[in-house]
Amino acid sequence: MARQRGRRLPLADRPLTEPHPARLPADHPHRAAVLAAHAAALDAGEAGYLDPGTGLFVLTAAFLARRGTCCDQGCRHCPYLG
Q1: What phi and psi values does residue 63 have, to the nearest 5 degrees?
Q2: pLDDT tens digit string along 18-57?
Q3: What is d(CA 22, CA 26) in angstroms, rounded to the nearest whole number?
Q4: Which of 2, 51, 69, 71 has a CA between 20 and 30 Å from the CA of residue 58?
Q5: CA distances from 67 to 7, 31, 40, 71, 75 (A)
Q6: From CA 82, how far away is CA 75, in angstroms rounded?
Q7: Which pTM does this prediction carry?
Q8: What residues have CB less than 8 Å from 30, skipping those under 6 apart?
């Protein structure tokens, strides 16, 4: 399915706490730390967190869901991927 930037899509059928498996595979070396950082940011209502492995700022699924559209940039916690 082709996506258009900014296109409204339904939310994926998974909790906002669970990233897309292709974006954070089960064998990722920092998976536990990433999930903990994401959960802490969700609990605090923050837009994102610093990735434990790279130090890059990563947006939370809740922030992306509130935005209302998929940007099609490959976000780790994109809530719109099926």
Answers
A1: -60, -45
A2: 998 889 999 999 999 999 999 999 999 999 999 999 999 9
A3: 9
A4: 2
A5: 11, 25, 20, 10, 13
A6: 13
A7: 0.85
A8: 51, 52, 53
